[in-house]
Amino acid sequence: MTTHTVDTTQELAAFLRARRERLDPRELGLPSRRQARRTPGLRREEVAELAGVSVDYVVRLEQGRGLRPSADVVDALARALRLPPVERAYLFNLAQQRPRNADKPATTAAPPLAHLVTDLSPLPAMLMNHRYDILAWNHEMTRLLLDFDTLPPSQRNAMWLCLRHPEIREFYVDRERVVREGIAHLRAAWATHPEDQTLTDLISEFVTHDEEFARLWAEREIQVNGRGHKVMRHPDVGVIAVDFEVLIPLQDPDQRLVIFRPADDKSQSALDRLCAR
User: Fold this and answer.
1) Taking the model in full, what pTM does it have?
2) What is the CATH number of the domain that holds 33?
3) Sequence-ordered list of residues with C-beta below 8 angstroms from that of 131, at least 6 positions apart, any chain
4) Does residue 105 lie within any of the structural domains?
5) Is the pLDDT of residue 101 over 70?
6) Given 137, 234, 237, 269, which residue has the most CB atoms within 10 angstroms?
7) Same domain assignment for residues 42 and 90
8) pLDDT higher than threshold 70 for residue 3
9) How many other C-beta atoms are found inside a 10 Å radius of the C-beta of residue 186?
10) Distance (Å, rounded) from C-alpha 258 to C-alpha 128?
C-alpha cells in the first residue's frame, strides 16, 4: 500500500475509529447491552458519553467532515479512549492543537535516568526538570559545582544557585551570559507550562528580589540551549572550561540530562585532579 501525504482530517477520523474499536467495554466497566454488538469495541454513543460531547459530534469526527476539535475536546477524547502518552500526543498533532500539560512536573528523578547519571562518570552529569530543579547528580558534578546533598531541596535549583548562592554567584567567568541564557530558558518553559504555579512563583520571587534577574527578564529573550560552552573559576584547581550537552529522554520529556565534557587538555587535567581528591 502506498502512503501519500498525510490528510490530517481523514487520519484523525481513522485513528479515532481504530482506537474506539480496540477497547473492550467490559474493561471500562460499561453496562452490558442486550443488543449484540455489530462491531468490536465501544459504540460511538459510549465514547460520546465518556468524553462529554454529543454523539453527532463523534460521528462527524469519525466521518472526517472537516471539524477541528478544541484542545479540551481532544483531551477528553484521549481520556475516553484510554490513549497512552505517545498516542495522546499523536491525536493532538492530528487535531493541530497543543496539549495542556496536565501532568505535574517531575520533582524526582526517574530511576533509570538516575542510574544513567551515575553511569556517566567520569563525566560530570546531572538531571533537571524544566524549572532547573536539580533531581539527580553524580560524584563528578558535586566536585565540580558543590555537594547538592548539603542543600535543602528548595535550593537545589540551578537558577537559584546562580543568583543566590555565595560561591556559585562568582563561579562563572562570563556570569551575565550564563544568567541571561538561563532566564531565556525559564521564559520559554514558563510559556510552555502555564499551569506550573511553582515555576510562576519562583519567577515572581526572582523578579521581586533580584535586580539583575528583573532587568534581564524584562528583555523578553527566548532561548533553549541544547549544547554550549561554559568557563568556570574553581576555587581549588583554577579555570575549567566545559562543553555541555542537554538531552531530553523520550519516556520522560520533562527531565533533562545535562552532561559536561572538559573542553581542552588543561581543563581535563584540572577536573581529574579535582575528582581524585
Assistant:
1) 0.77
2) 1.10.260.40
3) 105, 157, 186, 189, 196, 198, 199, 202
4) no
5) no
6) 137
7) yes
8) no
9) 20
10) 8
